[in-house]
């Protein structure tokens, strides 16, 4: 049996961060960093937008102006909470039934032409 060299005990190195472990961690660090950036820039905002859209679709009521996924602009005439269908009037006396999921936007009514604040006297 060969005697151990000075400074070495014949035992395996302690379970710590050896140079090989650090090397493998530094190889995966950019991948983890890229995933984190994608999550906070792309995935998380999209999930937030989906949550807001779901809430908006639940709150649809008669008289709301909406835009469908096909680009049709209309006014809701019938919307039942227990149904997935909504009746939308796209022209005078022209009504179509659309699925709630196809509605992309609720158009907020524009304010009157008073875009400038009133002058103080």
Helix segment tally = 1
Strand content: 15-25%
Name given to the CATH architecture of the largest domain? Roll
How far apart the termini lie comes to: 104 Å
| Overall pLDDT score | 84
What general outline do the C-alpha atoms trace? elongated
- The amount of helix comes to 25-40%
- Strand sequence of the main sheet, in spatial order? 4-3-2-1-5
CATH class of the largest domain: Mainly Beta
Number of domains: 2
Give a quick account of the main beta sheet: strands, pairing sense, barrel closure: 5 strands, antiparallel
Radius of gyration: 31 Å
CATH topology of the largest domain: SH3 type barrels
Secondary-structure element series: HEEEEE
Low-confidence segments: none
* Number of distinct beta strands: 5
What is the structural class? alpha+beta
In words, what does this structure look like?
The protein is an alpha+beta fold and 121 residues long. The chain contains 1 helix and 5 strands. It has a 5-stranded antiparallel sheet with strand order 4-3-2-1-5, with helices on one face. The chain is elongated and about 100 Å long. The N and C termini lie far apart (104 Å).
């Amino acid at each position: 049996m060969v005697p151990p060299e000075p400074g070495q005990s014949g035992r395996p190195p302690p379970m710590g961060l050896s140079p090989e472990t650090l090397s493998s961690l530094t190889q995966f660090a950019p991948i983890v960093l890229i995933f984190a950036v994608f999550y906070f820039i792309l995935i998380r905002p999209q999930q937030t937008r989906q949550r807001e859209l779901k809430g908006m679709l639940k709150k649809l009521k008669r008289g709301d102006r909406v835009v469908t996924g096909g680009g049709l602009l209309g006014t809701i005439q019938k919307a039942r909470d227990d149904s997935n269908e909504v009746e939308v009037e796209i022209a005078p006396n022209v009504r179509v039934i659309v699925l709630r999921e196809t509605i992309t936007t609720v158009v907020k009514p524009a304010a009157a032409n008073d875009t400038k604040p009133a002058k103080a006297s």
